[in-house]
Amino acid sequence: MQIYQAISQREAQGFNTQQLRENFLIESIFRNNEIAMYYTHYDRVILGGAMPVYSTLDLQTDDNLKADYFLERREIGIINVGGDGEITVDGETFALSKLDALYIGKGSKSVTFKSNSADAPAQYFLLSAPAHQTYPTRKMSKEEASPVSLGSAETANERTIYKYIHRDGIQSCQVVMGLTVLKQGSIWNTMPAHVHDRRMEAYLYFDLDAAHRVFHLMGQPQETRHLVVANHQAILSPPWSIHSGAGTTNYSFIWAMAGENLDFTDMDFANIADLK
Fold first, then answer.
1. Is 41 among the annotated ligand-binding positions?
2. Domain coordinates in residue numbering, the chain
3. How confident is the model at residue 92 (pLDDT cuts 50, 70, 90)?
């Protein structure tokens, strides 16, 4: 499990492109027949991906957690961005199609990931945070996720937001999770940009053609930086950083958070005219 240290805005001011990429960009989320995990000291979140192709994958603990099993003191949110599959939690099986989500609460001992077809394997994006109480395991389809249409063609940000794990959806201790799908012809996400000093955030970009890229904006509103991101790559966004972006075509992305509260609308906006 690779560990990412927390980086302050003062440190990041002096980073070159390679240093920004090493500290805030995760380039390998999905690997055939593996569960890839990355530990970050932003709210002690773990993110990663499970991609079972020919075999079932078991969610195992890591020496860094000092736990008998992965969810001994943690919860986890999962969204499938690939083919149909199944997740089994302590003997109960949940079928997940593309864009379906599953929340698993603290104390679940056995979690396995499976794909229905090796030709179209499931791709499970994972985000886990420490938990102080147990909430029930629950699945939610994209149709149940209260889809909301936002933006307009004039500002090139027509998009649909799906909210799964949040204060008014699936209950959790810390994890907040959902996704955004941009319509054809739209490229901007999360604009006007915002920060939320009360929680970190992670992005997974997906459904992005291999020939295209997203220019992910980060940094403080008055001193922005950017990362060029490909399909199935993830961003670590510190609480002090904006998290916005524009693509060379439309795309989708998962947003996943943990920290002080579960309020999806907890955002401190930066006026577009004030960005630098």
1. no
2. 2-274
3. very high
Which tens digits make up the pLDDT trace of 156-210?
999 999 999 999 999 999 999 999 999 999 999 988 887 888 888 999 999 999 9
Specify the pTM: 0.95
Q: Residue 264: is its pLDDT beyond 80?
A: no
Task: Measure the CA–CA gap between 44 and 173, rounded to whole angstroms.
Answer: 13
243 annotated among ligand-binding-site residues: yes
Contact call for residues 105 and 136 (beta carbons, < 8 A): yes
- Tell me how far CA of residue 114 lies from CA of 76, 89, 120, 174, in angstroms: 17, 12, 12, 26
Q: By three-state DSSP, how is residue 23 classified?
A: helix
Amino acid 195: pLDDT: 80
Residue 216 among known ligand-binding residues? no
Cβ neighbours of residue 258 under 8 Å, at least 6 residues apart?
43, 45, 127, 129, 174, 175, 176, 199, 200
Q: What is the residue type of 93? A: T
> 84: closest CA among 74, 94, 76?
94
Q: What is the CATH code for 2-274?
A: 2.60.120.10
Is 194 annotated in a binding site? The answer is: yes
